[in-house]
Design a protein that fits this description.
CATH superfamily: P-loop containing nucleotide triphosphate hydrolases
GO cellular component, one term: plasma membrane
Strand content: 25-35%
Distance between the termini: 22 Å
GO molecular function: ATP binding; ATP hydrolysis activity; transmembrane transporter activity
Pfam families: ABC_tran
Helix content: 25-40%
Structural class: alpha/beta
Protein name: Cell division ATP-binding protein FtsE
Number of strands: 10
Bound molecules: adenosine-5'-triphosphate
Order of helices and strands: EEEHEEHEHHHEHEEE
Number of domains: 1
Strand order of the largest sheet: 6-7-8-3-9-10
Function: Part of the ABC transporter FtsEX involved in cellular division. Important for assembly or stability of the septal ring.
Radius of gyration: 17 Å
CATH architecture: 3-Layer(aba) Sandwich
Largest sheet: 6 strands, mixed
Shape: globular
Length: 218
């Protein structure tokens, strides 16, 4: 479902990834492990077509992304990818409901369809009572739940999470892990970039891939 073939990526003269070959199957849960600066975010950005490789090819669900035009890249992301960021990236002066529905704006769905999707996610992530609150007034754990809801509102096949627990305490991190487990049971393909040891002992993680200085560790 996801293939990175002979990937090299440099930012000007900084080599971020070197000779990366990876493939992920549909429904797999993968932990990308590595210290800060090892290249994890760059891999997630290539899979979501936010960045293009310097050389090599990225194929997601049959689509070649290495040279995809920006317009098609945003369409590709909207249809296929849910992204969960370290700092949640919520819009502070928008309500919880507006934040969750944001990725659907370009789709012109009916009010009824938007409401159905919203209600399902508000129930699923225990956010009903906060739906009209500004996201800036929520706790870290609540913000993270909004971020997950927003990441899956477009019903993506692929979920990418970049250091999702780095701002959460242990209890909330374990809650996040339970939410990821539930998404895996829906056959989502999930890649989590993290150096949080909590992710290294989970029995439902299919593979842990370690990256060091832009290269895969054997
Ligand atoms: N826009 C950029 N310009 C120049 N160098 C960059 C840029 N983005 C990343 N890098 C460098 O590329 C390397 C890999 O960065 P990347 O963000 O992929 O690592 P990471 O493992 O995700 O780290 P972190 O957990 O800190 O985000 C690092 O050395 C980083 O400094």
């Amino acid at each position: 479902m996801i293939q990175l073939i002979d990937i090299n990526k440099s930012y000007k003269d900084k080599i971020a990834l070197k000779d990366i070959n990876l493939s992920f199957k549909e429904g797999e849960l993968i932990v990308l492990k590595g210290v800060s600066g090892s290249g994890k975010t760059t891999i997630l950005s290539l899979i979501s077509a936010l960045l293009k490789p310097t050389s090599g090819e990225v194929i997601v669900d049959g689509k070649k992304l290495a040279k995809i035009a920006d317009h098609f890249a945003s369409e590709f992301r909207r249809d296929n990818i849910g992204f969960i960021f370290q700092r949640y990236n919520l819009i502070p002066n928008m309500s919880v409901a507006e934040n969750i529905l944001l990725p659907l704006r370009p789709l012109n769905l009916s009010k009824k369809e938007l409401q159905t999707r919203l209600e399902r996610l508000l129930d699923m992530y225990k956010l009903q009572e906060y739906k009209d609150n500004y996201s800036q007034n929520l706790s870290g754990g609540q913000q993270q739940r909004v971020a997950i809801a927003r990441a899956i509102v477009n019903n993506p096949k692929i979920i990418l999470a970049d250091e999702p627990t780095s701002n959460l305490d242990r209890e909330l991190s374990l809650e996040f892990i339970e939410q990821i487990k539930a998404l895996k049971s829906e056959n989502k393909t999930i890649i989590i970039a993290t150096h949080d040891p909590l992710f290294f002992e989970l029995d439902f993680v299919d593979r842990i891939i370690e990256i060091e200085n832009g290269q895969l560790k054997a």
